[in-house]
């Protein structure tokens, strides 16, 4: 269980995250949505301790992660892998090495300094690439891949951390709809087969509704919606995005996983069916 208790983050006079309070049980797939500036990134960054909270506390499995220091803090950062919009790979080195870099937090300093990877780590990295369907590019330099492939490499690297939680900050914002779909499906598969909790910030509502079993909507730093995909009515969307930006929220043209540009009828479209777990399976917000 990941638990946020009255979490607030201020930047000078501005409050980026305002008294946020929720709990996420292990294995849940959660989408955090909201307009630009709503506080989504700040929220994820506090969970993984890239930044500190101003007030409140964050606990995972009964441990107050918001207060950890030193090695324990590094262990926590290993347990919650982060995926970014811009992939954050090392473009000039090969894909396999990029993936193995996900092991850095598991290794001794000397092994890290010498850049020595064991056969086991190599096998693990190849298995992760296979799982994401990109083993063929293992020896290519990461910078030569398409955005969709790079994001899959980043997910493989995250898997190497053997994380308990994956935090993804707008992982599909730079991808075309087809690759966006592949990346979201990969995250969902990992969530379902490994039971890893996934919390992903998403710009559009459509994607969150298709892939996440729980959606948290933020507006001006506050949580204004917390429920299942079917609870996300137009009224709820208006509360999250504001009446003037509704168009944006439903926009299929940009940053969306919809392949045919419409939520309705996909006649002959290649959009695969997406499992939507029933709300009753998630008693936490029932
Ligand atoms: N490092 C920072 N310094 C100052 N203000 C920041 C910083 N990071 C975020 N903010 C502010 O906090 C608010 C929330 O930002 P952010 O968490 O990035 O929102 P989102 O990810 O939803 O777009 C914004 O007003 C943003 O300008
Ligand atoms: Mg952001």
Automatic annotation (TrEMBL):
<keyword id="KW-1003">Cell membrane</keyword>
<keyword id="KW-0472">Membrane</keyword>
<dbReference type="InterPro" id="IPR003439">
    <property type="entry name" value="ABC_transporter-like_ATP-bd"/>
</dbReference>
<keyword id="KW-0067">ATP-binding</keyword>
<keyword id="KW-0813">Transport</keyword>
<feature type="region of interest" description="Disordered">
    <location>
        <begin position="252"/>
        <end position="286"/>
    </location>
</feature>
<dbReference type="InterPro" id="IPR027417">
    <property type="entry name" value="P-loop_NTPase"/>
</dbReference>
<dbReference type="GO" id="GO:0015416">
    <property type="term" value="F:ABC-type phosphonate transporter activity"/>
</dbReference>
<feature type="domain" description="ABC transporter">
    <location>
        <begin position="2"/>
        <end position="245"/>
    </location>
</feature>
<protein>
    <submittedName>
        <fullName>Phosphonate ABC transporter ATP-binding protein</fullName>
    </submittedName>
</protein>
<dbReference type="GO" id="GO:0016020">
    <property type="term" value="C:membrane"/>
</dbReference>
<dbReference type="GO" id="GO:0005524">
    <property type="term" value="F:ATP binding"/>
</dbReference>
<dbReference type="InterPro" id="IPR012693">
    <property type="entry name" value="ABC_transpr_PhnC"/>
</dbReference>
<comment type="similarity">
    <text>Belongs to the ABC transporter superfamily.</text>
</comment>
<dbReference type="Pfam" id="PF00005">
    <property type="entry name" value="ABC_tran"/>
</dbReference>
<dbReference type="InterPro" id="IPR050086">
    <property type="entry name" value="MetN_ABC_transporter-like"/>
</dbReference>
<dbReference type="InterPro" id="IPR017871">
    <property type="entry name" value="ABC_transporter-like_CS"/>
</dbReference>
<dbReference type="GO" id="GO:0016887">
    <property type="term" value="F:ATP hydrolysis activity"/>
</dbReference>
<keyword id="KW-1278">Translocase</keyword>
<feature type="compositionally biased region" description="Low complexity">
    <location>
        <begin position="255"/>
        <end position="269"/>
    </location>
</feature>
<keyword id="KW-0547">Nucleotide-binding</keyword>
<dbReference type="InterPro" id="IPR003593">
    <property type="entry name" value="AAA+_ATPase"/>
</dbReference>
């Amino acid at each position: 269980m990941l638990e946020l208790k009255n979490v607030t983050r201020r930047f000078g006079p501005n409050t980026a995250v305002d008294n946020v309070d929720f709990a996420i049980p292990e294995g849940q797939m959660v989408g955090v949505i909201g307009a630009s500036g709503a506080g989504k990134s700040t929220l994820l960054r506090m969970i993984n301790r890239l930044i500190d909270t101003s007030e409140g506390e964050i606990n995972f499995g009964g441990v107050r992660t918001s207060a950890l220091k030193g090695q324990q803090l590094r262990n926590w950062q290993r347990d919650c892998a982060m995926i970014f919009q811009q992939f954050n790979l090392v473009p000039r080195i090969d894909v396999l090495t990029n993936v193995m870099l996900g092991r850095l937090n598991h290794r001794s300093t000397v092994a890290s300094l010498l850049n020595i990877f064991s056969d086991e780590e190599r096998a693990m990295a190849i298995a992760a690439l296979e799982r994401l369907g990109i083993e063929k590019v293992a020896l290519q330099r990461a910078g030569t891949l398409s955005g969709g492939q790079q994001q899959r490499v980043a997910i493989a690297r995250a898997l190497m951390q053997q994380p308990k939680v994956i935090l993804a900050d707008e992982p599909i914002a730079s991808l075309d709809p087809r690759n966006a779909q592949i990346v979201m499906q990969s995250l969902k598969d990992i969530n379902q087969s490994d039971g890893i909790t996934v919390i992903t910030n998403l710009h559009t509502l459509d994607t969150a509704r298709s892939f996440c079993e729980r959606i948290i909507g933020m507006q001006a730093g506050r949580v204004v919606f917390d429920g299942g995909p079917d609870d996300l009515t137009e009224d709820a969307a208006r509360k999250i995005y504001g009446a003037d930006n509704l168009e944006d929220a439903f926009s299929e043209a940009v940053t969306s996983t919809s392949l045919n540009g419409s939520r309705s009828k996909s006649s002959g479209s290649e959009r695969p069916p997406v499992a939507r777990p029933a709300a009753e399976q998630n008693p936490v917000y029932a």
